Amino acid sequence: MVRRYACNKRLENALYHWARVATQHDETSRRRYAALRGRGHSHGRALRTVADRLLSVACTLLERQTLFDPAYQPREAAA
Predict the structure, then answer these.
(1) Higher pLDDT, 52 or 1
(2) What whole-number distance in Å separates Cα of residue 21 and Cα of residue 33?
(3) Residues of 12-28 as b/e, b for ≥16 C-beta within 10 angstroms?
(4) Could you read off the pLDDT of 3-45 as tens digits, one per residue?
(5) CB under 8 Å, gap of 24 or more: what pairs does 18-23 form?
(6) 23, 29 contact by CB (below 8 A)
(7) CA 75 and chain centroid, separation
(8) How far is it, in rounded angstroms, from Cα 7 to Cα 11?
């Protein structure tokens, strides 16, 4: 996999720290990070994946114009 290096450095730094703190305080992020590390991903790659998830959640909340609910559990897909 190739990482893109041309980006806004301040945004990159903010996302890095957001993901790092999320792995310390958010159980979902912590489990995701641990699973990625267990599969052999580097620390940076695992944090970037956590950051991708956090950005996805933030974009979804903005699109739906709703607040974050940490107790929210997505419905299982009907078989």
Answers:
(1) 52
(2) 12
(3) eeebeebbeebbeebee
(4) 667 888 898 899 999 999 999 999 999 999 999 999 999 999 9
(5) 18/51, 18/54, 19/47, 19/48, 19/50, 19/51, 19/54, 20/47, 22/50, 22/54, 23/47, 23/50
(6) yes
(7) 20
(8) 8
